[in-house]
Amino acid sequence: MNEEALSLVVGCDSTFQIWKCLEDHYLASTEEQEMQLKGQLAIKRGDGESLEEFIRKFKRTCDNLATIKKPLEDLDKVFQLSRVVGARYQPYNPVLSKTPYPTFNQYTAGLQHNERDLQNAEQENKDKIPVYAQAFIAHRGRGHQHGRV
User: Looking at residue 68, what DSSP letter applies?
Assistant: First the structure.
């Protein structure tokens, strides 16, 4: 027993009293920690936070719940993550309307794949010069040629 636990049970006369004293002290702490961790799971992803970083933080919180013997079921993790990951990924969530439901690992892998697709599409859109801009550039180029002749 560590010093903290030992100091809690000084004066207890039976093993039942010792057990009850330790349970009362540590259970309250565990319940408080459980509520705090579950509250963290409800926090939505921030704008500047990468998806990978957010998933890692979410998983760490789930692992901490398991450490205090309050683990979430895999499906609960999936649905909880789907609620807080952000509107950007809502088009991916129809996968949750089909059974069998994905495991947490399958769901996060799918989200990350979806994120790569979104980033690629955004990059392609940035690389494309809009038609009106192309016409302006072409027209401007002809004007310079005519002015120099």
Answer: T
